[in-house]
Amino acid sequence: MKTQNRMTRQRRVILEELSKVTSHPTADEIYNMVREKMPNISLGTVYRNLDLLAENKQILKLETAGNIRRYDANMHPHSHIRCISCGKVHDIPLVDASHLNLNDEILEGFNYVNVRVEIDGLCSDCSMKKIS
Length: 132
What we know:
- The chain is of the alpha+beta class.
- The protein contains 6 helices and 5 strands.
- The chain has helices at 2-5, 9-19, 27-35, 43-55, 104-107, 124-131, and strands spanning 60-62, 70-72, 79-83, 89-92, 118-121.
- A 3-stranded mixed sheet has the order 4-3-5, with no helix packed on it. A two-stranded antiparallel sheet has the order 1-2.
- Strand 3 and strand 4 form a beta hairpin.
- Helix 2 (9-19) crosses helix 4.
């Protein structure tokens, strides 16, 4: 459909607001950011436009099992580290896949096109809380 590729005002504002932050916000957080500029926008509209922007490879949709989806406007190759306590996500330099010990038997029959590495751990704030 042509309307999916067209940069609507809503989509442009969502992309602009997402591009201003490095916090990898959730759809709800993006909705709250966008509402300051577009008070009548609905949460459903934000979700639909985030999905379209991700489909069109204009943003990254970060999905990990059991966690809330987060979004990233940084399209340069990089990896992520996520705090397992508070859920914060940060960019880290791209992990070189050649350093991964991928067993040839596992890869047999697969033509992989992408390697994504996500690291889970505790951020410094949550680490300090656990010590206290």
